[in-house]
Sequence to fold (371 residues):
Amino acid sequence: MVIRVTFDMTPAIGNRTGIGNVVAHLFDSIHNSKEVDLLPYTLSYKAKTFKSDLPENNVFINYPASVMSYLWKFTSLGSLDKKIGSFDLWHATNYLAPPTDLPTLITIHDVTMLKYPELVPAKTRSIASIIKKRLSNGAHVHVPTQAIKLDVLEHFKGQISNSDRVHVVPFAVPDLILKKPSQNAISLSNGDPYILCIGTLEPRKNHARLIQAFGTVQSKSPNVRLLLVGADGPARPQIDSAMADLDPQARSRVVITGPVSQADRTHLLKNAHIVAYPSLYEGFGLPLLEAMTTNSPIVTTKEGSLEEVGGNAAHYVDAHSADDIARGIIEVLESNELRSELIEAGKLRAKQFSWDTSAKMLIDVYKKVAG
Fold:
């Protein structure tokens, strides 16, 4: 029996974040399966602008997601079943599922909104109530790691009494675009050695503390630079404050690039001396696998899922201590032996993650949830 699964492609439109890349890779890995018929859809009145990024059979539901979220939060209205037609299972790939009487699987990437509500805006915190409504109605959950499964069971314990409803299916290494990078990316990579940090400028990415740590690092290694690559975000005031507190010499060695193309991202990863990822909380941590694939040593924390993903291929620091972040970076900078060990461990570690394996695991979940 072929299972017909609605599949939310909305995160994959526009300039893709980590979640957007995950959704696109999962779709590409599953859609040729003879066991599943994926029914892709987007919930956005802007989605048709990105039609070329989406599957040919994508269903465009031209409602503003913010309006539908408000409706789902306060009512039981807003079913999208008729927009899709006949299906067996609804897979909400990015937290939010519409009301439906049919089986539902919700991908919960992390539970920042409940575990660290101070790190996210009110709009993000508000999605928890919609998730709780769906879980109370029997929805199952897909998470990328065992760490997030435990977080889901803790923070949604009022809605989930059976841990068998939470399914762990890991992500894998995003495709690295090997097209010619921009001249700006080439210029950045051709300078002095740099520490690369990738991620939207949001509080949980811990950029401000990394900048503080860089002041210590740069005092010991004057030629090193720090590159922050990612879209602007709500942590910008803290980042600007941390920059202002730096010694002028260190401040001149920090570059905030803003968002970059996928080709530039790959180029900067391949040429990084260190990839620093000092997050306060992560549901997975795709940049770790990207760094492993591009032979860049990693300095990261043990928060959220990072240790589960990084394994023995990362050098760990305390996310809450600028001094310890500096300590970890300096140790990698000063030890060629440690750098080599991390790079070799990363090559092996990255091979343990496969989109094909993830697709097979997710198809098994579909079968269980659809009954």
